């Protein structure tokens, strides 16, 4: 089932049973689901297929980052799984992203969205400095997003803090997938470039990735409903 909801719930659980229990409390009309490294490393493609069988579109968030041949092969296998979105790291460079885009050509119209991570939402300027990037996150995000667009990506993963600038420079069709979403009353946890759900949409985000504010709530379905009502 396809939905118009912008919410993607991050199923960061160690076991498939936890993810499937949460999925049973949610409605595919209200959100998509994200399978990341923890859940996939334990449960693999089976849990993706189980979530899809429940009617959810799945974002496979494995952030592939390797040489072009290896990354493109991984993207192709993700496409064969029938996921709705798959991603790579923009830092893998132009040739890596182009190889991923080219490998999806064989799927014609029936392919996943392909997005590229710019600067993780857990990073701030000091973190970038420590790894030799002496510019503000906003500037680095803009640089990588432009490269991603030129390399044929459907969009990028960034903070909603950068969404307004990217929307203006890269147009309405370019997907802006924004984690680091925190309702006013939620802890930031390890996230640094955080934005509220309503502000993220106002800034031009296409999709809001939300994990702990929903999955660690006493009543996750209610937490999702409150967020949807706030939009
Ligand atoms: O820059 C990024 C890229 C991916 N993520 C992922 O999104 C969720 C966020 O979870 P919260 O619990 O809402 O913090 C998580 O799965 C990350 O791996 C991100 O946070 N930032």
UniProtKB/TrEMBL annotation:
The annotated active site, in chain numbering, is 61 (for ompdecase activity), 63 (proton donor), 63 (for ompdecase activity), 66 (for ompdecase activity)
One cellular component term (GO) for this entry is: cytosol
Reaction(s) this enzyme catalyzes, per UniProt: orotidine 5'-phosphate + H(+) = UMP + CO2
InterPro entries the record matches = Aldolase_TIM (IPR013785), OMPdecase (IPR014732), OMPdecase_AS (IPR018089), OMPdecase_bac (IPR047596), OMPdeCOase_dom (IPR001754), RibuloseP-bd_barrel (IPR011060)
Quote the CDD domains the UniProt record gives: OMP_decarboxylase_like
Q: In which pathway does it act?
A: Pyrimidine metabolism; UMP biosynthesis via de novo pathway; UMP from orotate: step 2/2
Q: What is its EC number?
A: 4.1.1.23
Enumerate the residues binding substrate: 12, 34, 61-70, 121, 182, 191, 211-212
Report keywords, A-Z. Decarboxylase, Lyase, Pyrimidine biosynthesis
List this protein's GO terms for biological process. Answer: 'de novo' pyrimidine nucleobase biosynthetic process; 'de novo' UMP biosynthetic process
UniProt-listed Gene3D superfamilies: Aldolase class I
Domain Orotidine 5'-phosphate decarboxylase span(s) in chain numbering? 6-227
Uppermost EC category: lyase
User: What does the annotation say about its assembly with partners?
Assistant: Homodimer.
Q: Which family does it belong to?
A: Belongs to the OMP decarboxylase family. Type 1 subfamily.
Q: What task does this protein carry out? A: Catalyzes the decarboxylation of orotidine 5'-monophosphate (OMP) to uridine 5'-monophosphate (UMP).
PANTHER family in UniProt:
OROTIDINE 5'-PHOSPHATE DECARBOXYLASE (PTHR32119:SF2)
Q: What is this protein called?
A: Orotidine 5'-phosphate decarboxylase
Recorded name of the encoding gene: pyrF
């Amino acid at each position: 089932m396809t939905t118009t909801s912008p919410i993607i719930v991050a199923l960061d659980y160690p076991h498939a049973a936890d993810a499937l229990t949460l999925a049973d409390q949610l409605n595919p009309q209200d959100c998509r689901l994200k399978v990341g490294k923890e859940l996939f490393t334990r449960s693999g493609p089976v849990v993706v297929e189980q979530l899809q069988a429940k009617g959810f579109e799945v974002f496979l968030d494995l952030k592939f980052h390797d040489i072009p041949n290896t990354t493109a092969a991984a993207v192709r296998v993700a496409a064969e799984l029938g996921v709705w979105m798959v991603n790579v790291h923009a830092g893998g460079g132009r040739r890596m992203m182009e190889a991923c885009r080219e490998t999806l050509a064989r799927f014609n119209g029936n392919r996943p969205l392909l997005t590229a991570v710019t600067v993780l939402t857990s990073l701030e300027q000091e973190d970038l400095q420590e790894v030799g990037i002496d510019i503000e996150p906003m500037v680095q995000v803009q640089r990588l997003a432009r490269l991603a667009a030129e390399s044929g990506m459907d969009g990028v993963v960034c903070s909603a803090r950068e969404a307004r600038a990217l929307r203006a420079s890269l147009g309405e069709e370019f997907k802006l997938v924004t984690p680091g979403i925190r309702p006013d009353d939620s802890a930031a946890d390890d996230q640094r470039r955080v934005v509220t759900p309503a502000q993220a949409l106002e800034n031009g985000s296409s999709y809001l990735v939300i994990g702990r504010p929903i999955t660690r709530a006493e009543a996750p379905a209610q937490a999702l409903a409150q967020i949807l009502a706030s939009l």
